[in-house]
User: What shape does this take?
Amino acid sequence: MTVDFMPSAAIAMSLVACGLLPVFLVSLSHGVLKVSSPGRRFILATALTWGAWLATLPATVPDAIDLVSSVLLLATATLAGFTLWTLVAWGFTVSMLLALNRADEPLTVEEWALEYTRGKPMEAFARDRLGVLFKLGLAESRGGNVVMTPLRGRLFAKGAGALRNLFGIH
Amino acid sequence: MIALLVGLCCFVAHVAVTLVWLRVRRGPSPVARHAVSALSAHILGVIAAANLVGPFAYWPVAAVSGFGAVCWLFAFSAVYKSVSLRILTQLNRTPENTLTFEAITQDYVRPEFEARVAVLMKMNCANEVDGCYTATETGNATARRIGVIQRACGIDGSGLYSDSASGASYGTGESPQPVP
Assistant: This one.
């Protein structure tokens, strides 16, 4: 056998830590430990996961390859977890389906949007998504207008455009 | 070191496959293509390396190719699905890089909502009769399953970012705004 499937101690500990991420997330979602904001909850769960793995480092004494591999495995679990977490907490299509299911009666597009935003107008949803751009400094609110920031906004827009071209998204 | 390079080769092969496959109009969903490509490139890469290069450890290969695949999917998802990035791209296309809130709502956000309605109908989760929509059996079953996951994760918001942050407004970065 030319492939060794047995993980080193450091990698084994990082795999265990990867498994702890959902455990921490669920633990921080209920009872006295509950963190109310889903975003902060994920950050805290991630910090606990990485902290748990770091605590095992002195005992496992990894070499450079094992250290890099362990960090990458944890980073993979963190990024995959973040993607799933955002989908469950803020996913657009997912939330729309839940709103339609909640309504329990036929809805027009406008009524569906109101059910989705729980009574707020469509503009509320637009402002909600724009909030991400504002927080990251990619756009600014000026009166009734939204203005892209000249440096960071343009850079991100060009990056996003390049990625869209790369992936063949039109 | 060989293992890390094998992992890198698996990731590069995955990138090459997805860049071609994502341009094919018919076939499984883009996320399914990413998953199939990543798994295939990883398995075939490990088998090929096991026959072509000397002994190596598996987990560094898995770490590098897995991390690369997740980052690649993350980048794709950001530009494929993100409403915020789509608005930013539209802002970049206007001469003054400026749009009114109303224009963003009517010209970009509302069509995005309607596009997702079409997606749900294509997935057989929603049904339209005389301009009114209802959830299908499949849609209700899916919603129930998602509801179970949300309850396990302690999530009960509407899906708006501002509903999840304590004391936040609609997310304008300014003081809370009244509902028009």
Chain A touches chain B through 94 residues (CB under 8 Å). Residues 51 and 107 of chain A are 48 Å apart (CA to CA). The helical segments of chain A are 9-27, 38-60, 64-90, 92-103, 109-116, 122-135, 152-167.
